[in-house]
Write a structure and sequence with these properties.
The structure is a homodimer of 241-residue chains. Chain A has 241 residues and is of the alpha+beta class. Chain A folds into two domains: 169 residues, Nucleoside Triphosphate Pyrophosphohydrolase, CATH 3.90.79.10; 55 residues, Orthogonal Bundle (Arc Repressor Mutant, subunit A), CATH 1.10.10. The first copy, chain A, is 26% helix and 28% strand. Chain A contains five helices and ten strands, in the order ββββαβαββαβααββ. In chain A, strands 1, 2, 3, 4, 5, 6 and 7 form a seven-stranded mixed beta sheet that branches. In chain A, strands 8-10-9 form a three-stranded antiparallel beta sheet. In chain A, strand 2 and strand 3 form a beta hairpin. The first copy, chain A, is elongated and about 65 Å long. The interface between A and B is medium-sized, with 24 and 24 residues. Chain B binds a DNA duplex (30 and 30 nucleotides) through helix 5.
Chain lengths: 241, 241
DNA sequence: TTATTATTGTACCAATTTGTTACAATAATA
DNA sequence: TATTATTGTAACAAATTGGTACAATAATAA
């Protein structure tokens, strides 16, 4: 959304971008049985926000989202999905953006394009936590993972956007088969079940879960896995298309 | 989308609207066991298009969609849902819009705001066919129902938009309970089953369908219905929230 | 080396849901 | 009054899901 600007973006016109339109990205990761999302923290303001960006005038909307994702995570080929367009008037509040620009030493005029109303397209993304390398944008001093269960206060309506993304992820989890995008290349059945339990926030029965997953025909069983656990070694699986 | 303009909208600036952003509406109805959608036909051009519109600068996005819906159908309180944002560059083709404006006797300059790139938010709506009164906009000479199974050639990417709306309707049909919005206030179980069969494009088993629908607890059974049919009179049902 | 321990893989049965057939009840028509 | 097509529901089979049980196993502890 109105948060990620490269130095060259703080211009009086913003002519390189589609006016009034932005992208907000809820980037999910999974680590130590916790769902996490990427958040930016803005220099000298204490404001925390979702990664986002604008759409170049010669760029497809979905490509702009992919660009934002890749700029914040270093990854390409990310699982990415539109989930909602946030277009209410009451999300228009120039104060946070003005604070961010002021912290950057820029005092914009009141009609600066970044201070006007924005409609924002919400995307959610699923990434392999172990592969993503969070990269702050030019205005933020950190880009890092935060536990979804314990988020800090977010700027504007970003808390609402996160909730809507999570709702969509929950309903998409079974219909589309997307959970795998949050895991590493190979994983155990227990990993997968823990992921599902965390996303859906409910316990699942081990036996039934395994039966259901295997019946989908999207898992390839690999060799046994003998890590530190003092127990029977589980199989490893890989997702197959 | 870039199709509905009142006379006052054909101005050099379009300052009353958010720039570059539009709404396309796929308005579904159901009549004589056929799914139908509303289409506009533009004067003197033969172009057919989805109803659409723009967002006023002081208007919520969803309210703009409701306004478009009410302007084309005369109905308020319509079931309405966002389903996708169409933001590819290749949907930008000024020719059809120029033809529509020319047919209206207006020769716009090449940089006219209506001839530039638009990102369009797709909404689908479900209305009671018997209550909706299709109303053309100021540039079209007809607004009418067309069989989804037998659509004419549509402008730009509108065929694609319709397909995506239908896909969404199909997956939403069971998750949310929205089919009733396409029926009249009261209906028979056969009506409801026919609706489901038409939307999903597959035969369903009468007994199982009835059992499932009744088990949802969202139907109120009314009196018997004795219409023309030379058969046992079916019950009427009403949808309850 | 051998018991201990926690977990894994899978078999098994119960409970529930879904798929299918059957048939009596019924409302108009012949 | 018989005929006809449809409706409402019962009945049962098949499939799916929920839950338990238990042998197999990999490390650790004795």
């Amino acid at each position: 959304m109105r948060d990620q600007l490269h130095p060259e973006e703080i211009e009086p016109d913003g002519d390189d971008f589609l006016p009034g339109l932005a992208i907000d990205a809820v980037i999910f990761g999974f680590h130590q049985n916790q769902l996490k999302i990427l958040l930016l923290e803005y220099r000298n303001t204490g404001l925390m926000a979702l990664p986002g960006g604008f759409i170049l005038t010669n760029e497809n909307l979905n490509d702009a989202a992919r660009r934002v994702l890749s700029e914040r995570t270093g990854l390409s080929d990310i699982y990415l999905e539109q989930f909602y367009v946030f277009g209410d008037l009451n999300r228009f509040d120039p104060a946070p953006m003005r604070a961010i620009m002021a912290a950057k030493g820029f005092m914009p005029p009141n009609n600066h394009w970044l201070l006007r109303r924005f409609v924002s397209v919400g995307y959610y993304a699923l990434v392999d936590f172990t592969k993503a390398v969070p990269i702050p944008d030019s205005l933020s001093d950190s880009c890092a993972w935060y536990d979804l269960a314990n988020l800090p206060l977010l700027m504007q309506d970003h808390q609402f956007i996160v909730q809507k993304a999570l709702d969509t992820l929950r309903t998409d989890l079974d219909r589309k088969l997307i959970g795998f995008n949050l895991l590493a290349e190979t994983f155990t059945m227990a990993d997968l079940q823990s992921l599902y339990e965390t996303i859906l926030d409910q316990k699942l029965h081990r036996s039934g879960f395994q039966r259901k997953m295997l019946s989908l025909g999207i898992l390839e069983r690999l060799d046994k896995h003998y890590s530190g656990g003092a127990h029977k070694a589980p199989f490893l699986y890989r997702f197959i298309k």
